[in-house]
Structures are given as C-alpha cells and as structure tokens.
Amino acid sequence: MTVPATIRAFIFDLDGVITDTAELQYRSWQRLADEEGLPFTRQDNEALRSVPRRESLRRLLKGKVVDEDTAQAWMKRKNDYYLALLDSDPPEMLPGIGELLAEASAAGIKRAVASASRNAFIVLQKLNALDMFDVIADASSVVHSKPAPDLLLWTAGRLNVSPQSAVVFEDAEAGVQAALVGGFRVIGIGNAGVDQAHIVLPNTEGLRLEALLERLNRL
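^ that's the sequence the OP posted. Answer follows.
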C-alpha cells in the first residue's frame, strides 16, 4: 500500500472514537447532579462530549452560580466517581480501531491521541494502548481546549507534521470545529454534530486504511 505524501499522521479523539466511556461519564455527572439537586439528563450529557471538565460543570449548572472552591470540589468528586467506575467497569476499544492503528503503524503513519479529558493516560492504560501512539495529549497540554484548535496544533507540533498532513478523527462538534479551524482534514464519527467534517462515518466498524486513504485522496 502506498501512502500519499500528503498524509503523515492520524490524530484521534479518545472518548467516542477509540473507546466509549460516555456511559461512565454520564453516571459520574448524574451522581453529582443528584447529590446537589441539579437537573441532568442523557441529552445534557451529549452536550459535554469533547468539552473540558470546567466547561462541562458550567453547562451542568445551567446558570447556577457557585464559588470556585465549590466548583473545584465538585469536579474532583465527579472525577473520583469516574475513576472508580473505570476500575469496576473497564472500557474496551471500539470495533475497527485496533485494526486501523495496526495498519497505520505498518504504513508509517504517525498516531496520536488529542483528548479534552485529563484522564486520557489512565483510560489508554486500561485499554493497554499506550504504546500504540507516538504522542498523547490531554487538556493539561494547552490553555485553551476544544473547540479552540490549540490542542490539535500542539499535537501536530509534537508529531513534527503540519496540520495539512494530519487527519483528525472526532465524534463531537467541538472537536470537528477545532480541526477545521486548525486546518486539518477531519473524519467525523457518529451523528453528534459532526456533519461539517470532510468525511462522516456512522461508526468505527470496518475502518480500513486503504479505503480511508482512497476517500481522503478524493477531497
């Protein structure tokens, strides 16, 4: 297989692309919301995809004002709930991703994770996937996370590739917008506001490098 010179790296979001911890995230936020008497639904949880923890809390509060000490304590409590769920219900890699990563590695395409989650390393460790990536970036890597392009640009810099030669895989509107603003080609996964991506796929099943490159080359 010949990889076009214009494609040198794949940059993956974590939740919803490599694995799906949406249910664990929902249960963690739901527990906090129930304890504090805040309304929170599964639809609300969808709006937190690829959104940093502080912004997620702001959306959860829906206009309710709390002081910063309280906000920090609530975020820590929620994260403790999430980490406990990771231990009791470890995530699995989504179908097709392991095969795509192996094919990309064999073809000499660099691979990275760029996640708004500060738990990216922990989740990848649970998946036994740390050594599958050349770079792992999370919300602590930059000041402004998605939908700002900073995290993706920082990741591309660490990979030593230009945005134009990297392809981003995202499942959320915030991530797609970050990729587009940063000048990346972007593949949207699912149906949660990813319709502006260059290529949209219903899920990760059946992802294969050759077919993906053919579609990318037609852009």
